Amino acid sequence: MAELLAEAAYYGGKVAQAFPSFGVERRGAPVTAFVRIDDKEIRIRSQVYSPDYAIVQDTSLLEGGKIMADLKKTATILMNSCKEYICTVPHGVKIRDIDATGIAREVIGRPIINTVLLGAFAAMSGLIELEAVEKAIRHRFSGDIAEKNVAAAKRGFEVMSNN
Fold this sequence. Notes:
By secondary structure, this protein is α/β, with parallel strands linked by helices. The protein is globular. It has a single domain, classed as Pyruvate-ferredoxin Oxidoreductase, domain 3 (3-Layer(aba) Sandwich). It has helices at 2-11, 66-70, 100-107, 114-125, 130-140, 143-161, and strands at 15-21, 32-38, 53-56, 76-80, 94-98. The protein contains six helices and five strands; from the N terminus they run αβββαββαααα.
């Protein structure tokens, strides 16, 4: 998802970089990924220590408070959630929820949430246009898979726009 976000930013005329951060985790373990988006050259090549946005794909990742501790005081979190969750939110931080799993099951037929969240992020942040998201998805995927993922991104965009 981080790579797709960076690619969509690029197609939207921005400069972007994306990279994961993981250790010895095996498949299925939590992984952190970082994306920088700017209008000018990005010279820094390190972890993002105080992000403006966080996209949380699973509420269990909130345990321990690490995500909340690292955010800017004015950050926004995009949360994949269809259920109640408990977390301490620092003053000034906003949480926006979307049932990305439910949308993905409905539109794609499987609980693959990346493109739903990408569309929702575009609507929530205003950093990238939906057309750039569609172009990135079609560049990465083809045929029916591409069309289902574009539809999922559009649905995420619509839900977040109306939320």
